Amino acid sequence: MAKELIIVLDFGGQYNQLIARRVRDFNVYCEILPYTVSIEKIKELSPKGIIFTGGPNSVYDPTSPHYSKEIFELGIPILGICYGCQFMAYALGGSVATASKATAREYGKTKTYYDENSILFKNLPSVGTSWMSHSDYISKTPEGFEIVAHTEHCPVAAMQNVDKKFYGVQFHPEVNHTENGKDMLYKFLYDVCECSGEWKMESFIEKTVAEISEQVGSDGVVLGLSGGVDSSVAAALISKAVGKQLTCVFVDQGLMRKDEGDFVEQTFTKLFDLNFVRVNCQQTFYEKLKGYTDPEDKRHIIGTEFYKVFSDKIKESYGDGYFAQGTIYPDRIESGKGDAAKIKTHHNQVKITDEVQFKGVIEPLKDLFKDEVRKVGEMLGLPHELVWRQPFPGPGLGVRIIGEITEEKIKILQEADAILRDEMDRCGYAENMAQFFAVLPGVKTVGVMGDARTYDELIAIRAVTTDDFMTADFAKIPYEILGRVSNRIINEVDHVNRVVYDITSKPPGTVEWE
Ligand code: XMP
Questions:
Q1: Which of the four CATH numbers 3.40.190.10, 3.30.300.10, 3.30.70.240, 1.20.1530.20 does domain 406-501 have?
Q2: Are the C-beta atoms of 386 and 377 separated by less than 8 Å?
Q3: pTM for the complete prediction?
Q4: Which of 133, 224, 234, 371 is least surrounded, with the fewest CB atoms within 10 Å of its CB?
């Protein structure tokens, strides 16, 4: 695949992933790099264009992220967004001011006037709504720049230096609230950077398969297979590259949903011509987790134990070899890689300790969003049910049992979750949701059953709709379905006397409870 890359230079803005999504949706490959990346690295990558993201700081703040001015000498087109636009103005000799009056700060939908002669706004309406989120503004453009958009309070809503191909917008074209914002990004990619739009999943597959077979050579690879979408797609991709040099290891850590372990074993032994190994190590995980209640502690213990099992399997099967896993882009971002804040450490992002030895780690899906992974899975011919399975996190029920994990709690949760899945499948509502499951919060409440008082566990139901799992909405499940689920759980699962429904979106919640 010819290299056509857009770099999104991350200054800490909240919409960075969205910018990357938009670019990729236009068939242009893009990577988000932290603002600490070296100029040499950028030169080496030779991108067709660079997008500076927004960020929470003022350019005059001594701790604010700055980048070497050399970036403006590379002859590469740049689009600065919000803070990125202010940084461009500041670095090239313009001025940025802090709005003294509250009215000059703009947050939210703002009427904006565009100059249709600008390549960014050509053939788009000259007046429209843009999404603003800033308290600083550009008070003087750098030499060589002209103003091409303004609002009532913001004199420079967009600026450009056509000769140098530098563009800056104070608003956020990547969010849906900016009318025609996607068109503006499209124009930057295609009309300014002259991208040809070659980022297609076919080329991703070809390129990745070639890279894996070159990296692995004649060595062996052990893949951590959970049976979820990501690791299944990774298995298909790697096996395309190295065939039977791949061994898929499914670790039953005792935190699977009811019957899940058998389902995974059957699917992978019957459907695929793969080396498949199931390792049952429930008791080891239970022992290690005993007494721990903190979500991050639990995640670290589970992740570390997984790596130990895989490392042993590599030693046993190949002596030395590669370890592969189905990490996807949001796993890395939410685990706090780069400049993003740590939300939770995904099990496959736990630090690999010295005890564990791999020749190298292969993560072929690490730059993809969930819906892109599914596209790859379909193109590789994986069964529809597998590709569209709802995700199941590596730490399994371990992050759905709040507080200490015990075998008794696992049993309760498995039963409740199985009823929930059964009801959703029966009424056909399952396919309206991206993910749904039961949670055991470890809270006891008083109830009455028969004529007697009960004091028992609570089950929470979590169900969301989303494409990319970076944001999600709670699913609007009809009450009668929720009612049936609640009735069955209380009647059929011992030690549960109450069921509640979680109506939190992400953000502010996350999909999983821990
Ligand atoms: P959150 O809870 O972060 O979940 O909003 C987003 C998606 O990621 C899944 N998830 C994980 N998947 N290992 C995984 O393989 C993990 O450690 C992990 N934590 C969350 C979650 O189920 C949802 O689909």
A1: 3.30.300.10
A2: yes
A3: 0.78
A4: 371
Alpha carbons within 13 A on the beta-carbon side of 359: 15
CA 309 – ligand 1 centroid, Å: 21
Q: Is there a catalytic annotation at residue 82?
A: yes
Q: Catalytic one among 30, 82, 85, 154? A: 82
- The tens-digit pLDDT sequence of the chain (514 residues) is 446 999 999 998 878 888 998 999 999 989 889 899 999 999 999 999 999 999 877 898 888 999 999 999 999 999 999 999 999 999 999 999 887 665 567 878 899 999 999 999 999 999 999 988 888 889 999 999 999 999 998 999 999 999 999 999 999 999 888 999 999 999 999 999 999 998 888 888 998 999 999 999 999 999 999 989 999 999 999 999 999 999 999 999 999 999 999 999 999 998 888 999 999 999 999 999 999 999 999 999 999 999 999 999 999 999 999 999 999 988 887 776 655 567 888 988 888 888 888 999 999 999 888 889 999 999 999 999 899 999 999 999 999 999 999 999 999 999 999 999 999 999 999 999 999 999 999 999 999 988 899 999 999 999 999 887 877 899 999 999 999 999 999 999 999 999 999 999 887 899 999 9
Ligand 1 pocket, Cβ-based, cut-off 6 angstroms: 334, 344, 346-347, 391, 393-395, 435, 469, 506, 510-512
Fold classification of 6-192 is Rossmann fold (3.40.50)
List Cβ neighbours of 510 (8 Å cut-off, separation of 6 or more): 343, 344
Residue of 134, 172, 346, 347 with catalytic role = 172
Largest CA distance in the chain: 83
Phi-psi region of 495 (alpha: psi -120 to 50; beta: other; left: phi over 0): left
With the most atoms of ligand 1 within 8 angstroms of its CB, the residue from 296, 328, 346 to mutate is 346
Domain spans, the chain: 6-192, 201-387, 406-501
CA atoms within 13 A on the CB side of 433: 24
